[in-house]
Amino acid sequence: MTESSMKKLASTLLDAITDKDPLVQEQVCSALCSLGEVRPVETLRACEEYLRQHDKLVHPYRAAVLRAMERVLSSRASELDKDTASTIILLASNEMTKTKDLVWDWQQAASGVLVAVGRQFISKVMEELLRRLHPGTLPHCAVLHTLASLSVANAFGVVPFLPSVLSSLLPVLGMAKQDTVRVAFCSALQRFSEGALEYLANLDRAPDPTVRKDAFATDIFSAYDVLFHQWLQSREAKLRLAVVEALGPMSHLLPSERLEEQLPKLLPGILALYKKHAETFYLSKSLGQILEAAVSVGSRTLETQLDALLAALHSQICVPVESSSPLVMSNQKEVLRCFTVLACSSPDRLLAFLLPRLDTSNERTRVGTLQVVRHVINSAAAQMEDKKPFILSSMRLPLLDTNSKPEKPGPGSKDPKADSVRAISVRTLYLVSTTVDRMSHVLWPYLLQFLIPVRFTGALTPLCRSLVHLAQKRQEAGADAFLIQYNAHASLPSPYAVTGRLLVVSSSPYLGDGRGVAALHLLSVLHPNIHPLLGQHWETTVPLLLGYLDEHTEETLLQEEWEEKLLMFLRDTLAIISDNAWICQLSLELCRQLPCYDEAPQEKNFLYKCIGTTLGAASSKEVVRKHLQELLETARYQEEAEREGLACCFGICAISHLEDTLAQLEDFVRSEVFRKSIGILNIFKDRSENEVEKVKSALILCYGHVAARAPRELVLAKVESDILRNICQHFNTKDPALKLCLVQSVCMVSRAICSSTQAGSFHFTRKAELVAQMMEFIRAEPPDSLRTPIRKKAMLTCTYLVSVEPALDEQARADVIRGCLHSVMALLPEPKEEDGGFQKSLYLETLHALEDLLTSLLQRNMTPQGLQIMIEHLSPWIKSPRGHERARALGLSALLLRYFLEHLRVSALVPFHNLGLLIGLFSPRCADLWPATRQEAVDCVYSLLYLQLGYEGFSRDYRDDVAERLLSLKDGLVHPDPAILFHTCHSVGQIIAKRLPPDQLISLLLTMFEALGDPEKNCSRAATVMINCLLQERGGVLQEKVPEIVSVLRSKLQEAQGEHVLPAAQHSVYLLATQHCSAVVSSLLGSPLPLDSHACMLWRALAVEPRLAAQVLGLLLEKMSRDVPFKESRAFLLGRTPDRVATLLPLSATCALFEVMSTSAAGPAVLELYPQLFVALLLRVSCTVGVQLPRNLQAQERRGASPALAARNLEPCSSAVDTLRSMLLRSSSEDVVQRMDLEGGWELLRTSAGHEEGAARLARAMAEHAGPRLPLVLKTLACTHSSVYENQRVTTTAFLAELLNSNVANDLMLLDSLLESLAARQKDTCASVRRLVLRGLANLASGCPDKEKMEFRTASIRLFGHLNKVCHGDCEDVFLDQVVGGLAPLLLHLQDPQATVASACRFALRMCGPNLACEELSAAFQKHLQEGRALHFGEFLNTTCKHLMHHFPDLLGRLLTTCLFYFKSSWEDVRAAAPLFTGFLVLHAEPRQQPQVDLDQLISALQILLKDPAPEVRTRAAEALGRLVKLA
């Protein structure tokens, strides 16, 4: 977009800012912001100029423009230059102060502009604002507001100016009489103080670190004096609150002695306001700041104010918080903050005030007091530490309190249990048990009864610590005193219950303030009361467990590893005890405790593992079977953690009892209990299916864990007969949870088979069935999102299954690879950490599963063919238009190539036949937009070169100097600079050229040519760089392949979209031609006629170097004269209508000559071959007069050339005339051409009737303007008198005869040669020749097409739709143009006011869809345009335009032209739809489509629409104008 277009765009929008409709005005502002996002400086200048030139514009519209400027500046201020910034600052300042009256929206908008600029140019803004502060005059309120806002937005920039600002403001404070002005001063002083405090708190980052509080103290005190002693007494509540807000931060800047002096007045003054204001947040906040300031200076006066302060604050905290207002909640937090300040400075006075109030009968007082006590214990921990006994002694009454209110959390509390009075009592208990003498006799062993009940779980840590302390005291007293007599204490838990409880809570060691350590300590201390044999073992192992916890934190602990350590501890314990009765009793107690953990799923899961471990150690099969049955019957199957825990239990148990475990599972499935539970569930139809699936899920998981954990030598015999038989019958489920369980279980079974020592001899008959089922599960997952681990588990399963016999057939392998790649590659980009750790972890695990599967499949076929098959599957993803998909595909490719190289075993020297193809696939990716992809691409090429060396017989540890250079080039690929990037790609190409075997060169080039059409433009460019590098380095061996290379180049140019491809292809052809000129010319002559623009450019590439150009021109002249110029049809030979048809080779050579000579670089070569070219082309003209094109070319001429074809007349004679004309122009004979143009000579040459005259006029022009060229021309013409073609003899004779009419014959001494030539033609068989000879002699002697009816429109539109249905075959191409032409009107008339017309348009568009050859567009039509369905027109039009611009980019200009026509529609809705359509088209267009758009015309048309009477039309026009900046 030119600057003038940009200015016109901005001016058009600014002129529309005065629209009366607020929605239109808002859209105009948004459009201006859109312009500003792309071209901020130009947009801001346009806004400034507009406001400056429209001084009479009323303030609401001025404010709108200023708001738009502020929005642009908020994100683009950094792009301003100093001059523009200064201009904008001056404008905003003038706008802000233009009127002394308060016009808030206008002044606020101007202030916003200044603040936005001030973030980047603070000095200039402050300079302007200081200029507005006049001594002895009250400043403008907006200036004060701006200074305040800047203090917040850029404190580091404003604070150095504060002394100057304050010195200007303070003298006039007393002059402020109006409350609004006073409020503005208060706000400014508040923000100044806050800015200064921020500055002083961050001096390490400040521009001037020498600034101190003293710099502001005196000025701030002067302001304080006015605010506190005068303005705070105002009756206006708003002013009082503004004063209070300012006094808070100001108090920190007051001189210490002044603050101390003022506190006796200041604090009572603030407290008194609590009674006057309902909303007290600002009072509490300011009070807290004042208290902090007083404490920071060590105020002694504060002590005298404490009673009043505490009373006022306590009354605030005891007020019931009934409102959910943010201010009310915030006030509570500020009051608690005040208590914290007082607790840090006067803890004794605070507690003396608070604790007696715990004994009051007033419930609100107790609740409020407890809240404060809890808060200060946490927030002032150091001061409260030695006060805790005093606090605990005061908690007696609250502990006995039966009212639940004090236990409720206060405002902002996150943990309700933290507020529990009982929780406080437990902490008190620990204090008592460890500090008070003789308490061990009272508390031991009775405290043990609190270990098991769930309601005391929150107190376990202090309870365990108390018990450990008591136990150690009892041990010191003697063994008899320590051992527990369980018979005498029936209420105490059994040793089995204690063991189970402590072990289970240890599985979550960091909960409850580290209860794992406390529980293990207690378990270790209690070992004599658990079992007499455990002492020595536990003394060794428990410290190891505790040491492991010391080495970790909650974040670093691996839960699975920790649980395994605890289970090993349990297994060893049971092995030492080795008492079946004891073990069975423990298993019974563990099962009893299961319901206790219903609210703690992780711990319950671990408890199940403990049960499985215990049952595995039991020798009684009856007990094992009984407990397993009870577990199956009582499990809470609806809980996922419980299902997993139950399965783990069965798996662990199966280690020792495989037969019994499988038998119990089988019995349960067949039992009445299972059937009855399903039957009961079926009563509840709405949830029965879900509940049943969960029961099945648990059973399936059980089978999986049994297979995973049971002894491998026993599992193989049971896999198909017992385990998979019960799993596979549930494969037809749709329940995602059951599906996941199925996949997990099959995965565990497969892993068990693979890890067995007998896996090699095991024939797995269900392998193909399971692989197919896993693929079905994978395909059922959403392709673009990762929600469950199903695909990861399924791919892991396939990985294990691949290595089991029998091997998969080729089709099954291909299905597995294709399905898994599609399932992972199409996922959205890798989630970031902030998106959730689970998602990132699942993504990485899924990707690793895919990697393992692919390497496993590759391992089964470690041959070049096997490698190529894998890469072919990855190829579509390597070329994907989506960067994250390419990155994944390259990463996988690099992984597979490294694996192949590391495991390469070459037994004989064989060719690596697909090396060129693979390098051609990967090497262009060295320029991918994604840096990671570029690195992986180099790694792929590196591995491939070493694979080639391996196949050539080099050892694996051999290092090739050339190949190793690739690694050093990787640094250059990190750099985003295109010059560096493509230079690196050229170096990569040179390395490839040096190491590539000759037989691989053509396959590499052909693969590289495929990359020219890569949607990733950088890769396409890299391909062009590497192709030309290879041609330059190795082109000499490609002579036989030139036709194939040229053919592929031509076809790729038709497909490739990038503007860089054509120049690169031209260079490729040039490089080939310098080595194999004849072959290249012959190949290019095979280009179909008419020559498309790409073929033309390839021909022109051969003219860039004079020596090559001359060689090419000579070859083309030879080709043009080698074949007959035409063939006569049978009808002509029989004497009927003349029918001469041009032959293709001369016609192609003529067109090629035109293209080569149209290049300025061809000039020297054309001059060198001037006579040969002139004569050959003149003869070509003569023998093509009246000659027709072949029929196939005639048809193309009638249809009209496509945009890709050169706009030239292909008719044989016209083509020759144009080429002759081009030759004369290129040989500096412009005067000849101009003379022929003026006399119409070229047109005469083309026609049979005027051809002779045309030749004569050419001769005259040559004689007059190119005489020196004629001698050599005549010499070349001399041999043409014997031409077999009559027309050629006629033309040359006419040319010679006319030369005799000119003095040039004498001047150049050509007379003899001319007469000799004419004499030779006197007896010519052609009468015309003889006649022209006579004329020559005579010359010597004498001279020397919206207003239709609705029914008609409806019927015609429906007819158009029906025609689409029946249009097939030959008519499709013709009709497609009509469809495209009708697309815009049909889309716009969807908004037709006549419902029947709109319905007809829906029908017609649905019918058009299939003929547009765009599946996405057709699908959108079918989805949105069904009859009876509501149409969201904007959404539909946006989708349609996106597909149109993606698939039909060349239609932009045509569609916009149609839209312009509908800007004048008489129907408002259609008129509004047209600019909406225009805007969406531009939104989805690319900058390269700009040449299709007449921007000025479009802006002018939209400008007219901005004056439309309909607001909707104006809104859409403004929206479209904002999007036109896209074409900048």
Main features:
single chain; 1528 residues; mainly alpha; two-stranded antiparallel sheet; 2 strands; 70% helix; globular
Characterise this structure:
With 1528 residues, the protein is mostly helical. The protein has 80 helices and 2 strands. A two-stranded antiparallel sheet has the order 1-2. The longest helix is centred in the first third of the chain and has 23 residues, at 179-201. Mean pLDDT is 84; it is low at 396-425, 679-687, 1201-1207 and 1341-1347.
The amount of beta strand, in percent, is under 5%
Strands of the biggest beta sheet: in what spatial order?
Answer: 1-2
Distance between the termini: 4 Å
Question: Given the helix and strand composition, which structural class is it?
Answer: mainly alpha
Please, what is the oligomeric state? single chain
| General form | globular
- As a whole number of angstroms, the C-alpha radius of gyration is 46 Å
Helix content percent band = 55-70%
Low-confidence stretches: 396-425, 679-687, 1201-1207, 1341-1347
Query: What composes the largest sheet?
Result: 2 strands, antiparallel
Number of helices: 80
Number of E strands: 2
Overall mean pLDDT stands at 84
